[in-house]
Amino acid sequence: MEPQSPAIFTEGLAKRYGKTTALAGLDLAVPPGTVQGVLGPNGAGKTTLVRILATLLRPDAGRVLVGGFDVARQPDKVRPLIALTGQFAAVDEDLTGRENLLLIARLLELSRKAARGRADELLGRFGLDEAGGRLAKTYSGGMRRRLDLAMGLLGEPRVLFLDEPTAGLDPRSRGDVWGMIRDLVAAGTTVLLTTQDLDEADRLAGRIAVIDRGKLIDSGTPAELKAKVGGQSLDVRPADPGQLASAGAIVAAAAGAGTGAPSEHDGMISVPLAPGVSGTGALAAASRRLGQARIDVTELGLRLASLDEVFLTLTGGTQ
Amino acid sequence: MSPIRGARQGLTLAWRSVTKFRHSPDQLLDVITLPIVLVLVFVFLFGNAVAGSTHAYLQYVLPGIAVQALMFASLGIGLGLNTDLRSGIFDRFRSLPIARSAPLIGYILGNAAKFVLCLVLVFALGAAVGFRTHGSIPAILAACVLIIVFAFAVSWVMALVGLVAKSPAALTAFSFVLIMPLTFGSSVFVPTGRLPGWLQAWVKINPVTDVSNAARGLMLSLPLGGGAAASLLWALGIVAVFAPLATWTYRRQQS
Questions:
Q1: A151 interaction partners in chain B (CB closer than 8 Å)
Q2: CB contact, 8 Å: B253 with chain A?
Q3: Which chain B residues are Cβ-neighbours of A107 within 8 angstroms?
Q4: Burial bucket for residue B99 (CB in 10 Å: 0-12, 13-18, 19+)
Q5: Is the reported ipTM for this assembly greater than 0.90?
Q6: B155 sits in which H/E element
Q7: What is the pLDDT of residues A231-266, one digit of tens each?
Q8: What is the pLDDT of residues A22-39, one digit of tens each?
């Protein structure tokens, strides 16, 4: 069987604003029904990328296809397939939640009756039934995001662009929005997610593209990126902060003295595992020697490098 | 994109503007205060000086004040559009499969609702202080339609100014420079014949003179002359030039 053609495809995508290069030849291919995370420091070109994919901006060079259509030549074919949410697409604050949904529904040529039905259905699905009659400017951050997402989903898009969908939300609302995104992807929607929140990318994205200065620096699954950059590390937090140095020395020995320097943060020492050292072996050794030295610990664990470390390493700490 | 679908989308977006006015009546503050200020200032402050009698002057000046009020009301379009464009909501519209110019047309149509409200207020306030029309109902309606059609045409000019202005401050200054000679350098306050010759030359070519003469003629049952036809031609001409210009500017702003 032939591989499915990508839902989002860019090749040599370039965009300049005057003398500033926003995108300098970006290649990306996102298979349908997956979540592609896009990570990058501020000014890396994330916003420009999404604006071009959403037909709001014309690329200067390169080929850009969404759902198989060229965004520059056939924007009218692309627009019915996509939806934009997040910082790029605001809700209308001077309309109620229901009116916001009705507006989009009517613009998408639903009949009055169908528009009302769809608006009510989405208000229910996003837990906004009660708030539907209130002006959007009275909404909390979480409610506004949910309304934003509901407006984006009204046209049942095949490709959804999410820009920092949970920035500024409390943990519970964050979890809600993540759940909704997972449901959409399970139903076959392709999602391109830009975020500064590495935890979010780690939890949602099947693949992550790290971009900096308009170029793709690296891409892969979260696990691949973590393995590529940091490998594993052994972390220990002694119960008595005074024993930090001796605990660190024991763990470093167990980790095979490590490839990188041990780092200390907030009463915790983290030592990268030397190549070829078995994770379980090192953990068992560290546990045994700490016991022999009678050092009590509150935390001891083996951990894959975090995406934060990946990000900082790849972008050269420009963040 | 068929014109009919585009028009329907424009109407939906006009509904958006009108609904916003309903929710936030403070956005109507300009069209509510304008009639009050203009009627009171020009009738009671200048009435005696210009015509010798407040009552007689009211009959002459009110139709013209209606035109002036709508010209001032159209100032808000540039500013509103300029602010709206900066918010993300227009990006959402632009990414929808709708006619490219629908958001602009909808915005201007929705604002025409403000004109209707402003006009009603001018005439209601005028009637309360003693304005009496001698025209038939169709003639009065024709006068109102004429004024609104002209204001709608001027809206496109204001929209263009709002689209190209770099800052709200520059926009406000420029719109005032545009509107002042149009409204004050016209037959709104003083009959053309009583003005100095050099000013008459400008007043005679000023479309606001045509519109206020026509509105006055229709409401007071005076001989019409060519004012009504000239007003409509002006409105048509302004739309023919500025609607495509504004639409083109709006569409170009995507890249």
A1: 92
A2: no
A3: 9, 12-13, 93, 96, 98, 102
A4: buried
A5: no
A6: helix B137-164
A7: 778 888 988 888 888 888 888 888 886 555 667 777
A8: 899 999 999 999 999 998
